[in-house]
Design a protein that fits this description.
This protein is mainly α and 267 residues long. Helices cover 68% and strands 4% of the residues.
Length: 267
């Protein structure tokens, strides 16, 4: 709910402000980093790393404690997730690699956990942070375009690495220069077309995830402005948003598998 003395726009603007740190005039400053390319969104980084550690801890402990026979409920859930990701990789990935399945599992679970933070009421954690002197706090890392771009660029680098590894520098260059038109006269056109297609991969990965979670976060803020009557709308949107949370994690994982599968193809 909007605080007293704040308009709706001020309330939303405050909640969309990251806790940032940057270096200006030789000194580190907080929350005065507008236009500074090297500013760090501390809250996004903190929650992204924290949730990554949660994923590693949970799956690591379950791997050590897993039993044969009839599994417990939590082990059964973990096994369902692993089997689902493994099946998706086997159906989509055409090459052979020991990296793809663990990477897909990490992306799906990590993104799901980051998206899940959007279901926490928008005022709770920022209010708690304010009591400790922290003026701004955004708790959904995937609603920060810097986080989604970092993940998209990481997948893009892996795609380039495996493309060159599997096809060689010459094969990769030939693929860019002679696709889709296999004629020397069409090389400039092919390079532009394939270059745009290549650069679109990290953009599509990052902006799709960011756009959906940013919009979801914004809708929760708009609902919070209603005040004490927000509960029915909040509950309805939260139930629907659960589908978005899972779907966006799945789409990012599947596109990553597809891009890496294409990188392993020799033709």
């Amino acid at each position: 709910m909007a605080e007293a003395g704040h308009t709706a726009s001020e309330y939303i603007g405050h909640h969309l402000q990251n806790l940032t740190v940057c270096k200006a005039d030789g000194a580190w400053v907080w929350n005065h980093c507008d236009g500074n390319f090297f500013a760090i969104n501390v809250d996004s980084m903190f929650f992204a790393v924290l949730l990554g550690l949660v994923f590693l801890t949970v799956f690591g402990r379950m791997a050590k404690r897993a039993t044969t026979g009839v599994p417990g409920r939590f082990q059964a859930v973990i096994e369902i997730v692993i089997e689902f990701v493994d099946q998706s990789v086997r159906e989509t990935f055409s090459g052979k690699s020991a990296v793809i399945a663990p990477l897909a599992l990490t992306l799906f679970c990590w993104i799901f956990l980051m998206n899940l933070m959007d279901l926490i009421p928008v005022d709770w954690l920022p209010w708690a942070a304010k009591q400790t002197g922290i003026p701004y706090l955004r708790v959904v890392p995937t609603a920060d375009v810097n986080i989604t771009f970092a993940m998209g660029i990481s997948v893009f680098i892996l795609t380039l690495f495996y493309s060159i590894k599997m096809k060689g520098v010459g094969g990769f260059t030939k693929e860019l220069a002679l696709t889709p038109f296999n004629h020397w006269a069409a090389v400039p056109f092919n390079l532009v077309l394939e270059g745009v297609s290549l650069l679109a991969k990290p953009l599509s990965l990052s902006l799709r995830l960011f756009g959906n979670l940013y919009a979801g976060e914004l809708i929760f803020m708009l609902i919070a402005l209603i005040g004490i009557y927000q509960l029915p709308l909040h509950l309805a949107w939260a139930i629907f948003h659960v589908l978005i949370i899972v779907l966006q994690a799945f789409i990012f994982m599947m596109l990553t598998i597809v891009y890496l599968s294409q990188a392993h193809e020799h033709h």
